[in-house]
Amino acid sequence: MRRGCASSALVGTTVLVSACASGSGDLATASLAPPPETATTLGQRTTDHVSRSKLANIGTSPKAAAGGSENAVLEEARQLRLAGKKAKALKTLDEADNSETIPALVKQRGMLALELGQLAKAEKLLTRARDDSEPDWRVHSALGATLSARGNQQAAQLELSKALKLAPDHPSILNNLALSYALDGNHTQAETLLRRAAHDDQSKVKTKQNLALILGLNGDVKEAQRVSSLVLPRDKTEANVAYFASRKMKPAKVSKAAPTHTSPTQTARAETAAKR
To answer: How many CA atoms lie within 13 A of 22 on its CB side?
Structure first.
């Protein structure tokens, strides 16, 4: 398929200013919003404050958790992730008894695989983790983020739409669905969704940056400047505006992105937005 300014996949953490100031102005540099909270906390949020020394000693033996209960394994993995040992956390879950059959373990393995950029594994596990009898918006959202990062935008939009029905107006879902639409060539729908996400108090800076990018690529330089100035320093805002102006306010033509396999360095990092 013909390609416009968009790349075939979303990358995770590059922000708007780096795209515009460098002259790329590419939707591929837009930020895929954090998948739902479960993707990183491996369960419900905790307010426990664990000392660095204690965290450093957690998980020295992944096999030790494998023989324990489901909750013990999940807690071990959660603590490992808090300590920054994400790969070890996933290994602990992978090696747990019945890790292929216990729904909670399958789901958390999929979430961590996404966070580590193991997209094929994440897609497989999160697909299995779906439960139509008890739908979980976090699973649909994370699977949608995975599919979008792999370039399968239509399937991503289906999953993200399901997540949005279960968690209406959640900013991270709106952001990811908007970017999927943008990469699919539907800038109007993308702008509408990003405006909804940007109005939410919980929306991330990345969401407003993505909105400014869409606006600028569509030629609305003045509005792009206004939105960009809300979240970026003056010099970076001016650099972005200068870039958009250099495009002579021509709307961006973005063709549908062809599905590709995305490397871990390109995939979205699954740090989470707070549950509303």
So the answer is: 9
Together in a domain, 200 and 101 = no
Residue 42 belongs to what domain range? 37-129
Number of domains forming the structure of the chain: 2
CB 88 within 8 A of CB 57: no
Tens-digit pLDDT profile for residues 33-45: 545 443 333 333 3
- The span from the CA of 256 to the CA of 92, in Å, is 39
Are residues 162 and 243 located together in one domain of the fold? yes
124 and 167 in a common domain: no
State the CATH number of the domain containing residue 226.
1.25.40.10
Residue 11: strand, helix, or coil? strand
Spatial separation of the C-alpha atoms in residues 25 and 242, rounded to whole Å:
11
**CA 132/CA 273 separation, integer angstroms:** 24
- 135 domain-assigned: no
Lookup: tokens for 2: 């013909």
The pLDDT tens digits of the residues spanning 169-202 come to 899 899 999 999 998 889 899 999 999 988 876 6
- CB crowding 66-82: b at 16 or more within 10 Å, else e: beeeeeebbbbbbbbbb
230 shares a domain with 120: no
Rounded-to-integer distance, Cα 211 and Cα 201, Å: 15
For 157, 170, 252, the CA distances from 160, given in Å and listed in that order, are: 5, 11, 24
**Nearest in space to 78 (alpha carbons), one of 121, 102, 110, 112:** 112
Which SS3 state, helix, strand or coil, does residue 67 take? coil
Q: Are 196 and 212 in contact (CB under 8 A)?
A: no
| 25 and 57 housed in the same domain | no
